[in-house]
Amino acid sequence: MENSSHHIVPYRVYLIILAILILMTGISVAVTQIDLGVITIAVALLLATVKSAFVLIYFMHLKFDNRMFSIMAVGVFLMIGVVIFVTFLDYLFR
Amino acid sequence: MEVHRDDEGSKIGMWLFLFTEMVLFSGLFIVYSVYRYLNREAFHQAAAHLDVALGTINTIILLASSATIAMSISAIQYQKKKQALALLTATVVLGLVFLVNKYFEWGEKIGHGIYPGSETLASYGHGDVLFFGLYYFMTGLHALHIVIGLVFIGFVIWYIAKDRITHDNFSVHENSGLYWHLVDLIWIFLFPLFYLIT
To answer: Burial, B146: exposed, middle or buried (Cβ in 10 Å; 0-12, 13-18, 19+)?
Structure first.
């Protein structure tokens, strides 16, 4: 397989992503100081999901690597999502 | 003589391993969510004990360390060995600072008698025992990953210094980066679940 064709990501891209991630951390801390019950939990988890997407896509190079890696990663997350969904179906409706 | 190498193959291997790690931690997150659902009031009270400021600082430290290791991989491709070494050293320092913060955080809790098996904790009730049991196990398992990641990065620094990792042969370096980002990824979920949602 190919060993040498690699996309070099400029430092600037990583610094911009870092700034976005820190900003989102700040927002999630601020939002959770206001207690809105379920909405607070939903916002905190939604922000965590978006942050992890940034880490996967840019820091872990999914955007620049073979598409196969993205497909596998999405597959694993879907599987985890299904397990969480089924577990809560059980607990919420037993 | 050209030695056979398969960088794409080694990256696939690393990703497959990372998937097993994701599934491992997802299982723990599900355990946490279910117990939280069953012991809502106790988890609400217990989570308020955690220091949000310290958790936020540690989150920013880990995010920054992820950026520095990612930049070091660009540096090695630009053939800037010194910059790559400096960025990796920064990553290690940030990882160590994270562990020192964790040490003080755990130390403070243990000082107040909050640790698995303590009588003080047992007197708080079943829900608190569950919360802090999961807190120590999950942040502890995460900290173990940090330690392993630091050792891994230590090897990468050594290899770069010895020119065994170069601009056209850096898949070990790249895989250490993937592992470190996974540790960051897990923390991104641990932080809101334990510190923020009270």
So the answer is: buried
